Amino acid sequence: MRYISTRGNAAPQAFCDILLGGLAPDGGLYLPEIYPQITRAELDAWRQLSYADLAYEILSKFITDIPAVDLKALVAKTYTAQVYCHTRNGGDAAQITPLTKLEDGLYTQELSNGPTLAFKDMAMQLLGNLFEYVLDKRGEAINILGATSGDTGSAAEYAMRGKHNVKVFMLSPDGKMSAFQRAQMYSLQDENIFNIAVTGMFDDAQDIVKAVSNDAAFKAKNKIGAVNSINWARVAAQIVYYFQGYFLATQSNDEQVAFTVPSGNFGNICAGHIARQMGLPIARLVLATNENDVLDEFFRTGVYRPRTSVETSVTSSPSMDISKASNFERFVFDLVGRDPAVVRELWAKVDKGEAFDLSATAHWAKMPQFAFVSGKSTHNDRIKTIRFAQGRYNVMLDTHTADGLKVALENRLPGVPMVVLETAQPAKFEETIREALGTEPVRPADLKGIENLPQRVVVMAPDVTAIKQFVVDHL
Ligand SMILES: *Cc1c(COP(=O)(O)O)cnc(C)c1O
Fold first, then answer.
1. Does any ligand 1 atom lie closer than 6 A to the CB of residue 151?
2. Separation of alpha carbons 149 and 83, rounded Å
3. What's this protein's family per the entry (predicted)?
4. Contact indicator for 343, 329 with CB cutoff of 8 Å
């Protein structure tokens, strides 16, 4: 399997060659040159498999440059009940992403049972093992520099902790994260993990990462890399749980299923789109946004209008607070018949902060065949839905999953099971749970008192030169 750029001006690459990088050299995103098609016989055989074996079957179609025995071992080491142990609602950890039944035909799928209680662990844990494997093979090293306001940074640190040839330098805004989030990240004592609390806002931290990223000489000399949401391996890993969700929500492979996905950067639902293109019987993909509704607007109107940071709200489902959706270009590439010239033309606008409008085009007329619908949820909807799920189903939802359930209930199809992807646990969003329910969310036993553990963090001013020096001093 080779990978091509959505903008068409980059040489096709093998999986391991795009694993450690970000964008293609032409500014596009990598996608497989074709989507492997799943036969009915495969689907029948896969229904019986464990999560790890299912992951191997699916990933081996996309990863053809790692020997089968090695890929099998990597996947088996990643998807274990020990790593994804934080089940709630009686879910079976051995299933890795078990369903919680809310009522007949309505489920949540637990994607947040990993070490950081958010769905980013599903892909990031595999990425950590893939990085270590490929770097060992090649005798190379990577130093990951990132900025986080919470979820992504902690998922990256837990995935990379203790890995050979990998160091992580993670910038976070000093004093701006919850005590639980700080404890999650800063209590890691692994020597290859460096937490830098920057005395500023998240944007200041992100600006430093951008400045370093623009310094090509520094990057090359110090082997600086990133683990951002456009990484193809992350999307590929996420395809697996759509198959697992289908098998758990249906009795036979004659049935169809629908998924609702709380969305921000379009990474999660992009994997659902690819699962459907491979032949998984998905009747409908429901995209849910919060107040930052750039994607809901597109799927309703055909207009994609990236927002400025001033137009981007800080909400109580913060992991969906995006101004533009970094993975969306992958879907548009498919929508326009995989014509890179069209993508180049559209993103010439997006990259200048301008909107594009497909509503009057032949491309838009093809939307129905992709089976997307969308909806939006606000803070009030979120609070109401958390109360509703607790009262009606005795299930406590986090704020992102509540956005999902709100939009799912508006978009069910008769006779088709609806699976709402649960992207985080309520324990991560105590303040909103208190507001909605007047109680504290349940926290997994092994994370109780995590705030009292010793922390390992340095506080630094948002000064690019000083932070570059810190990195160099710790290589
Ligand atoms: C990252 C994240 C999302 C959004 O996922 P995308 O892949 O960016 O669409 C939703 N919920 C939670 C809890 C997240 O951490």
1. yes
2. 23
3. Belongs to the threonine synthase family.
4. yes
In this prediction, residue 22 carries a pLDDT of: 82
pLDDT beneath 50: ranges in the chain: none
Ligand 1 in reach of 118 Cβ (< 6 A): yes
C-beta of 120 in contact with ligand 1 (< 6 A): yes
d(CA 459, CA 250): 51
- Which of 109, 119, 405, 422 to mutate to test ligand 1, by most ligand atoms within 8 A of the CB atom? 119
The SS3 of residue 108 is strand
pLDDT at 154: 93
- pLDDT tens per residue across span 414-437: 999 999 999 999 999 999 999 999
Task: Provide the sign of the torsion angle of the four alpha carbons 442, 444, 447, 452, taken in this order.
Answer: positive
Question: How far away, in angstroms, is 402 Cα from ligand 1 center?
Answer: 13
What lies within 8 Å, CB to CB, of 100 at 6+ separation is 88, 89, 90, 91, 107, 108, 109, 110, 395, 422
Q: Could you give the residue ranges of the DSSP H alpha helices within 394-441? A: 399-409, 430-437
| Catalytic annotation, residues | 120
User: In this structure, what token pair is assigned to residue 384?
Assistant: 């109401």
Contact indicator for 220, 38 with CB cutoff of 8 Å: no
Ligand 1 pocket test, candidate residues 324, 400, 433, most atoms within 8 A of CB:
400
HSE toward the beta carbon, residue 77, CA cutoff 13 A: 15
Q: d(Cα 332, Cα 342) in Å, to the nearest integer?
A: 9
**pTM surpassing 0.90?**
yes
The finding on whether 107 has its CB within 6 A of some atom of ligand 1 is no
Question: What domains are there in the chain, each with its CATH number?
Answer: 93-117+233-437 (3.40.50.1100)
pLDDT value at position 204?
86
